[in-house]
Design a protein that fits this description.
By secondary structure, this protein is of the alpha+beta class. It is built from ten helices and four strands, in the order H-H-H-E-E-H-E-E-H-H-H-H-H-H. The chain has a four-stranded mixed beta sheet.
């Protein structure tokens, strides 16, 4: 069987290496594109790290912000309603209650239709009637101003306190109509803040207890996708790039270093060629 010509053998080797170089070139472009995309994503995550972290911790920040806002609104309500509350203290104990407490069973309307404070005798008569009708030692009242509930305030009146107030000097008249509308707006704002605070507090306190060892898995399941990407790039990004570079390094190494010498010196003569040369 005749050996293939030397030129065809050399051309075949050249074509084989050219095909291999072409595929390696496209592979290198694909890997380069992948690394550029990964680096771009990493850069975006690092640039947006503050916003991502802020968005992930938004419930905590929002809850604290709502509580601060509720405190400001509460101080405004207290300042505006102080002339009214100071008179009601003559009847009993005025105390603040949490928004999570159930509403009071009894409501006390302290203003008349014109927005003026009802007379002390009129209020005492209503409270005395409630005490006799229920037979209770004291009654916890929720306050109403012109049909609007006063949030977070209760008036507790006992029979002894009512008797002492009846003997004391009656409170001075008070026209509360100029302050009623601003106070009602503050009441509405405080009610919205209380509802939002309860909602966020309920979200942060799960009703079902998680067994030991499962709390971390549950907390991870509640994390957003951008936060998880940022977390994993921060933890494993550098190691991943190094691993990719090490794993792909052999694909860019020429596995036949003798190829240039083959082209320069020609292919190794076969046995039949040596016998023809000897003859």
């Amino acid at each position: 069987m005749e050996a293939p010509p030397e030129r065809e053998t050399l051309n075949g080797l050249i074509e084989m290496f050219q095909r291999r170089a072409k595929w390696r070139m496209w592979e290198s472009y694909a890997v380069l594109l992948l690394m550029v995309l990964l680096l771009g994503a990493a850069g975006f995550v690092f640039k947006s790290a503050r916003d991502i972290t802020a968005a992930e911790t938004a419930p905590d920040m929002t809850l604290q912000g709502l509580r601060d806002k509720r405190d400001v609104v509460g101080s405004q309500i207290t300042s505006l309603a102080e002339p009214l509350i100071s008179r009601l203290r003559k009847l009993g104990d005025v105390r603040q209650v949490d928004a999570s407490e159930p509403p009071a069973k009894f409501r006390l309307q302290v203003l008349d239709e014109s927005g003026k404070l009802r007379s002390q005798a009129d209020v005492e008569s209503e409270i005395g009637l409630d005490l006799r009708r229920t037979g209770n030692a004291d009654i916890d009242y929720g306050l109403s101003l012109g049909g609007t509930s006063y949030p977070g305030i209760r008036l507790r009146v006992s029979a002894s306190q009512l008797a002492a107030a009846a003997k004391a000097q009656a409170w001075a008249p008070l026209d509360f109509s100029p302050h009623l509308q601003p106070l009602v707006r503050l009441f509405h704002e405080a009610s919205l803040d209380d509802s939002a605070i309860l909602m966020f507090a309920d979200r942060q306190q799960p009703k079902v207890e998680v067994p030991t060892g499962a709390s971390e898995a549950q907390s991870n399941s509640n994390l957003s996708l951008p936060f998880l990407v940022q977390l994993n790039i921060t933890r494993y990004g550098t190691l991943s790039l190094v691993a990719i570079a090490i794993g792909l390094q052999p694909r860019f190494t020429v596995s036949a270093p003798a190829f240039p010498r083959t082209i320069k010196e020609g292919p190794t003569p076969c046995a039949c060629t040596k016998r023809r040369s000897a003859r």
